Amino acid sequence: METIIIGDLIIDPDRFLVKKNGIPIQLTKTEFHILYLMMSTQGKIHSREQISKLVWGKEHLDFPRTIDAHISNIRKKIGQIAEQDIIVVRKGIGYKFNDLLLS
After folding, report:
1. What are the helix and strand counts (H, E) for the chain?
2. Which pLDDT belongs to residue 60?
3. Which CATH number fits the domain that encloses residue 25?
4. Which of the 8 DSSP states describes residue 57?
């Protein structure tokens, strides 16, 4: 896995480190893996089931809103970039990294 830099957001999987504007952001293991998934597959939409399989290796949806809660926590901890949410939802489809931040 490689370090990804998008704007002022850096995720370094080797050091399990996330920084925004050079300031470290503390994420849980699950939040980190979800963010890395979103950043490494820029623009691709992932359903809750896909996120679960990619993060935990199986569908871990005993509580279907678990993924929603993790995404919400990531948004709160990182905040917005250029007045945009970093992860956006496509109702009824899934989540993806915000395309507007990729240009």
Report:
1. 3, 8
2. 58
3. 1.10.10.10
4. S
